[in-house]
Amino acid sequence: MTDRLYYEDSHLTEFPAVVTACEQEKDFWKVALDQTAFFPEGGGQAGDTGYLGDVEVFDTHEKNGEIWHYTRQPLEVGAEVKGVLDWEKRFSRMQQHSGEHIVSGLIHTRFGYDNVGFHLGEEEVTMDFNGPITKKELLEVETAANQVVFGNVPIQISYPSKEELAVLDYRSKIEIEGQVRIVTIPDIDVCACCAPHVNTTGEIGLIKLTNVQSHRGGVRVNLLAGDRALRDYREKESSVKAVSVLLSAKEAVVADAVERLKQENFRLTGQLMALSKTLIQNKAASVAEGTANPIFFEDNLDADTSREFVNLLSARCSGIACLFIGNDESGYRYIFGSKTEDTRPLCKALNGQFGGKGGGKPEMVQGSLSGTQEELMGAVETFLRS
């Protein structure tokens, strides 16, 4: 049985060990040691990675009480090796996991909700609770959680007896057989957990709750802690600075500047739509009453304006009114309309000839295709003459 050094010292990064077993499985090997600081996957936390000598460990798992280090190369049984953890990854995971205990403990105390789902991903932590939490309440929990971090509270590990466990009020997601390991953050949380944690809450650095959304009758909360919270802050700060420069606005008022830009865009879009409407009305009016099969090519018209243009043409012309929107390089959207003809055969013919997609009702079809203006004009005229 492997001696679990991570329980003696969660901050141990290097250790000597002897290889006790090495078994091939598919395209990798499973290596067992007499002692290890590598934590195997469990308790919602992924297995550690690192090196055994020069051999990379890409994952660690526990099966039937044995801890197996997954490698791409075999190691000789009886060989002495130096184990080295990917400490940056391990420490980040401990920051996230300890942060999750703080938040889950606070929510359990304040609302009485249980943490019914926990995933410590490589990008963020998600926690599922069996009750509703508003964004305002989440902000209050985040503030309280960071007060615990700033208090640098010692995190305690204990192994209570069955008698002590029977009277201990603690959180647990599953039924546990054998010795139960309890992780306690005084006055905040008492929880059964097999994973390594930071020694004091101050090592977490910062807890940021980034989102809350409804999930299976309760809520899912997203968490970033420690290095991940810092990285998230830097990325968002960089974005705000970039937007600040683009808008010539101070960083603190970027949101106000964006809102003004948004309103100005709405105003200009409205003006453009009004001008486009006037343009198509004038173009339609310039077509003589009774003109057969008018064909128009436009660089850029929105969908509503395009349909209105075809309707105007159909009302004063005979045959099928054809409108293409786009250019030879990027392709065209099309709308065909008629008060008297079935537009679908023309749609089908052009789709087949120019690799298009689209359809509709007899009186109007729309879709997209690729081709040049000259090719499309010729194809339409040829079809309508046939």
TrEMBL record:
Cofactor names from the entry are: Zn(2+)
- Please state where this protein is localized: Cytoplasm
Which of UniProt's keywords are assigned here?
Metal-binding, Zinc
Output the Pfam families linked to this UniProt entry. DHHA1 (PF02272), tRNA-synt_2c (PF01411), tRNA_SAD (PF07973)
The positions making up the signal sequence are none
PROSITE patterns on file: AA_TRNA_LIGASE_II_ALA
Q: Which residues form the Alanyl-transfer RNA synthetases family profile domain?
A: 1-235
- Is Metal-binding one of the keywords? yes
Q: What is this protein called?
A: Alanyl-tRNA editing protein
